[in-house]
Design brief:
Elements (H helix, E strand, L loop, with lengths): L1 E7 L35 E6 L5 H6 L3 E5 L11 E5 L5 H6 L1 H8 L3 E7 L1 H12 L7 E10 L5 E8 L2 E3 L21 E3 L10 H4 L7 H14 L19 E11 L2 E5 L2 E5 L2 E13 L8 E13 L9 E2 L14 E2 L5 E7 L5 E3 L12 E13 L8 E13 L3 E5 L5 E8 L31
Parallel strand pairs: 2-3, 2-4, 4-5, 7-10
Antiparallel strand pairs: 1-14, 1-18, 5-6, 6-7, 8-9, 10-13, 11-12, 13-14, 15-16, 17-22, 19-20, 21-22
């Protein structure tokens, strides 16, 4: 996990104060409410607003019992509310009462094919937060934590930019797996503009909807998905804060072949970012400034659990040769987590982990003090709250470097064994075999 607080020089009240009464609900005098849907134990009851067409919905359909909204259904009778940005304008989204009703009832809402205007005009008022650029899928949920403070959770697939990769065969072998697709990395979006041309021109990744669907279904299945486990037990009543959870999913199909055996695997990862915003308002009820604590954790997998690696059962002729394995494929050997902040508005207070304990264990910890007004102690009452949290994790066979600057946090996690993430071999084959030896065998069976 990576964690770092930022201090913000200006406070925007809407960031923390839940907006009440977003929509004036009309009571239909002559309409009988529709009965709850006939539930299926294997499917989530889903209320659909208008026409919907998306590969992300297709990936979810086997798990959904979809019911078209007619105006009489109650969102609290459903597990999920679904709408399509192509069939609903930003104004329609902002004015539709069902979205606010669903969030107040603790239900998840999923929008597909959304523009930035959909999120800024139609959703941000409900969440007090948003992301930039277009979104092929955007799931969100709101609630309150164990201390009664507002929190929001957003799940969104990553946007990717194609990265060219040169590959060539090693000189002593002609059957090294070669990529049929170029690896990609997540794209960066500027909040004040639209998505970059590179991101907009990307073809849809056929595996991304499955990874997103799996993440969303897991979140919906959790009985208390937004209750933080590491929040200090004692929180002062006058301390104002809010939590914002962003989950990003990324999936990239990579194909190749070895000795005439083709295959495809889907390296994927999930990044969870938790923004906790604390208002420092000792001298000013509206806030002197705010601390923003960002905690990041990520999980990466070289392939989906349901698929093999690219090539299976491929040995060098009939003999066993070191560097030739029964399984050949792609695997991540480095991962970078970063966050940039506008230096005009933000000051980076601290980052962690700062140092690495060898290559097997890393400790993450931050501490800071928030001053706040305490109304119970009189008109000039005040109090303070110290946040302190430290965690240690094993990263066996990996190492981490902190590359933070004054306004940008950045960590690079790299494998050490069996492949050194910093090592650049003479040959640039897609998969390292004979001619590009591993530093050591990955396990006793290799």
């Amino acid at each position: 996990m990576n964690a770092q607080p930022f201090a913000h020089r200006r406070w925007r009240q809407r960031c923390l104060t839940p907006l009440l009464g977003l929509t004036l609900l009309a009571c239909s005098q002559g309409t009988k409410p529709a009965p709850p849907p006939a539930s299926s134990p294997d499917r989530l009851d889903t209320l659909v607003i208008g026409a919907v067409q998306s590969t992300y919905v297709d990936a979810l359909k086997p798990s959904l019992n979809m019911v078209q909204y007619t105006g009489s259904q109650k969102p609290e009778d459903y597990n999920l509310v679904l709408f399509d940005g192509d069939a609903n304008s930003p104004t329609d989204v902002a004015a539709h009462p069902v979205l606010a009703q669903a969030l107040r009832a603790g239900k998840w809402v999923l929008g597909v094919d959304l523009t930035e205007a959909h999120k800024k005009q139609g959703i941000q008022g409900l969440l007090h937060a948003s992301t930039c650029g277009t979104s092929t899928a955007f799931a969100f949920h709101t609630g309150y934590d164990a201390h009664g403070r507002f929190q929001a959770h957003i799940i969104e697939p990553s946007r990717a930019e194609s990265q060219p990769k040169e590959t060539r065969l090693p000189t002593d072998r002609t059957d090294t797996p070669q990529p049929a697709t170029k690896p990609t990395k997540p794209g960066q979006q500027a909040c004040e503009g639209t998505a970059s041309a590179t991101s907009q021109s990307l073809k849809p990744d056929p595996g991304s909807p499955q990874v997103f669907a799996r993440t969303l279904l897991e979140a919906i299945a959790k009985p208390t998905p937004l209750v933080r486990q590491d929040t200090p037990a004692t929180i002062p009543n006058d301390l104002i804060y809010a939590n914002f959870y962003f989950t990003e999913t990324f999936n990239q199909p990579l194909s190749g072949s070895l000795k005439g055996y083709p295959g495809t695997q889907h390296p994927n990862y999930t990044v969870n970012r938790t923004f906790t915003v604390y208002l420092n308002n000792k001298n000013n009820p509206q806030g002197d400034f705010q601390y923003v604590l960002l905690e990041q954790d990520a999980a990466a997998n070289p392939k989906l659990s349901s698929e093999p690696f690219i090539a299976m059962g491929t040995k060098w002729d009939s003999d066993w040769v070191i560097g030739s394995y029964d399984e050949a494929g792609w695997a991540q050997n480095r991962m970078q987590l970063s966050l940039s902040a506008n230096p005009t508005d933000w000051t980076l207070v601290s980052t962690s982990p700062d140092t690495v304990n060898g290559t097997t264990n890393v400790t993450t910890g931050v501490s800071f003090n928030v001053q706040f007004g305490a109304n119970a102690d009189g008109p000039n009452g005040s109090g303070s709250f110290t946040y302190s949290n430290s965690q240690s994790r094993d990263i066996s066979d990996w190492a981490v470097s902190n590359l933070a600057t004054n306004t940008e946090t950045q960590w690079m996690y790299m494998s050490k064994n069996p492949v050194d993430g910093n090592y650049q071999p003479n040959c640039t084959a897609a998969i390292r075999t004979t001619g590009c030896y591993l530093g050591q065998l990955p396990n006793d069976l290799a």
